[in-house]
Amino acid sequence: MPLRLRGKKKAKSKETAGLVEGEPTGAGGGSLSASRAPARRLVFHAQLAHGSATGRVEGFSSIQELYAQIAGAFEISPSEILYCTLNTPKIDMERLLGGQLGLEDFIFAHVKGIKKEVNVYKSEDSLGLTITDNGVGYAFIKRIKDGGVIDSVKTICVGDHIESINGENIVGWRHYDVAKKLKELKKEELFTMKLIEPKKAFEIEPRSKAGKSSGEKIGCGRATLRLRSKGPATVEEMPSETKAKAIEKIDDVLELYMGIRDIDLATTMFEAGKDKVNPDEFAVALDETLGDFAFPDEFVFDVWGVIGDAKRRGL
Question: What is the DSSP string of 171-186?
């Protein structure tokens, strides 16, 4: 009997979907059972990645509020902040700040640096890059594939913010919209991107393609602060090793099908499917939670397989 994976689709807006590389809604919009409201005012320390004194940030519940706190500490505009890394000032895409912040993590804010305009000839259907965003309107390059079209343009680097494509300003777009825009560009034609690279005190290391490293993996066994787009932040326990590995595999599937990496989106998908008994139920749950994406059936089956394997191993 064929599976009707889109039988009960419920549309949701991008705002209510709550997808940030910073903010999953969670299955049914609820919080994780292990979460609890912070019992005390948490204080974190931050620096500008290109060099600065240490500032204190506290009392924030979202990425937007955190950026405002950092901007206030260093007397800059929040719009100058491209993204933040945790525990390293390097442009390390495996240590990006997302929706979870370890209670002992040190925050490094990467701000706007040199602007550049590049022309790219799209010789292949795939450009060979992965896009992510900072949750507040800036999309940037997270990974460059060896031998891909973008790899041949040496002025384009991992960590560069994409400001416009063929003259169209994309500030405010989510990473999946930017990836779709690039994918839809015609093959064998030239296109132009305006980029902003993060400010550097000096060149720390050669241009990076940001391959996978153990730093990307979700930790387990320690508490984190979960930032939310609405409502107070909560302190949560990190997931079990089985769950963490499953979420990483879902993130791999996202990159394969959509050209994006988003641990928080992967977490949302895992939460939507962990209590479902078949792929039909899982597909309906995805449509209710993440209806804007309209994931293809092949994608749903692959993600369901990852969740099923995790359930068999015990969560």
Answer: TT--HHHHHHHHHHSP
Q: Are residues 47 and 131 in the same domain?
A: yes
Handedness of CA 297, 274, 241, 291 (dihedral sign): positive
More confident site: 172 or 221: 172
Instruction: State the Cα–Cα distance between residues 49 and 315, nearest whole angstrom.
Output: 37
Domain end, chosen from 169, 198, 227, is at 198
Per the rule left: phi > 0, alpha: psi between -120 and 50, beta: everything else, 172 is: left
Whether 59 and 109 share a structural domain = yes
In a domain, 203, yes or no: no
Helix (H) or strand (E) run with residue 306 in it: helix 297-313
Distance CA 166, CA 195 (A): 12
Asked if residues 255 and 130 have their Cβ atoms less than 8 Å apart, the reply is: yes
Angle at Cα 162 formed by Cα 72 and Cα 248, nearest 5°? 85
Domain that holds residue 294: 239-313
pLDDT in tens, 159-188: 999 999 999 999 999 998 999 999 999 999
Residue whose entry in the numeric block shows the structure tokens 């804007």: 292
Alpha-carbon distance of 210 to 141, in angstroms, equals: 10
| The residue type at 307 | I
